[in-house]
Amino acid sequence: MPLTNPRWEGQGVLWLRRIGFAFGVLVTALLTVWAAAALYFDFTVPRLRVAVALLFVAVIVRGVVYLRRSKFVLLVPTIGFVLVLGWWLTLKPSDSRDWQPDNAQTASIEFRGDAVTIHNFRLCTYKTETDYTCEWQTRSYELSKLHAMDIFITWWGSPWIAHPIVSFDFGEQGHAAFSIETRDVMGQSYSAIRGFFRQYALIYVVTDERDVILSRTNYRKGEEVHIFRTIIKPEIARQLFVDYAARVNELHARPEWYNAVTNNCTTNIAVSAAQAQSRRTRWDWRILLNGKSDEMMYERGGLVNGGLPLAQLKQQALINPVAQKVGNDPDFSRLIRVGRVGFPEAAQAASAN
Asked: What is the pTM assigned to this prediction?
């Protein structure tokens, strides 16, 4: 007597094939949607974008209908995707475009022994979010003075999405903040959908906290900015600064595309942090959904927390009220840190005054 029923085995294989085919249909449909969107957003002749995207979809649909009874039917959208992807990867970003004033220059950093010189250090002064003037300065620091690294996290709208800004603390020499952003041309604004395509160049803005932080706390609507002191030791902070400087210089010499998944603010921070500590990048879903990056760093022990649970740590880290009070005060960086967990030097300076 057979231990299994051949009929049942046959039905099992049939259902596995059906499930596999359905999965293949789903995957190739998604690839087709992406390819059509890539043509729509990135085709080099703007007035032909809609026509080219629709033509691509029509060809894929026609091919699928023609081969609908063939086992090779899914090759049609697959080949179409590969062809579009091959073309898409040839697109190169340009450094010569009509950039918005706050993106007009890209920074570069040079080292001479302990001396650090930052060229095109940005300092924008704001009247409103869109009415501002920018200075492009040259600032000098001593690498040996770098003793800590702070991270600002800005939330707006969704709790799942945020923007991190790393700030290196050089003590009495001040702070150098790095904001990894899209480099926008005139009239361009960020779109989460467009961020998946070749619409934006990537830029490391090296700037004063009175610029990159004050603009978010005082002039943009609906943004909440929090500051956290990291546990990174001075020698690791210095190595991380050197790694950031290398990326700044790479982008100054050769522009790259921003990508919302593979080349954005959080992925670059994660890679640089791993390299500075000579370890592999630890994958975490919160690198992509970076509105939870504070939770990730807290769980990994990366933040000075003073024994507080994350909710309380985050609450006391909110700087909007004090930033709105002190405005463009030259002592802005110290004042927004006074009384917060992890910043004893700010508290001591305040008591001394």
From this structure: 0.87
